[in-house]
């Protein structure tokens, strides 16, 4: 997977990297939704871009794609559609945390 490509193997370093991202993802998603709630579209776009890059770097495709859609719609000034995608961020983060929990646990 993506982490094996980046780290060469899914070892302790990759596991720690994944755990750090999963720990940071809720705050990153909240930064997007908080900026959107404040109508700070530039900040929301920047935060969505950061979340997209981080998510895709670990292979979290659904979360990365959601963040990408937010970024794209904000670039197009379609804040209503961006908000629809943003509404699903917390669920995507939660699903990711559940899916990777067994990977993070040392086997």
Q: What's the number of helices?
A: 6
Mean pLDDT: 91
The helix content is: over 70%
Q: What percentage of amino acids are in beta strands? A: under 5%
Oligomer: single chain
Task: Count all strands and give the number.
Answer: 0
**N-C termini distance:** 18 Å
Biggest β-sheet strands, sense, barrel: none
Keywords summarizing the entry:
elongated, 107 residues, mainly alpha
Task: Furnish the topology, listing elements before pairings.
Elements lengths: L1 H6 L4 H26 L3 H17 L3 H15 L3 H8 L2 H16 L3
Provide an overview of this structure.
This protein has 107 residues and is mostly helical. The protein has six helices and no strands. The longest helix has 26 residues. The chain is elongated, with a radius of gyration of 14 Å. It starts with a helix and ends with a helix. The model has no long low-confidence stretch (mean pLDDT 91).
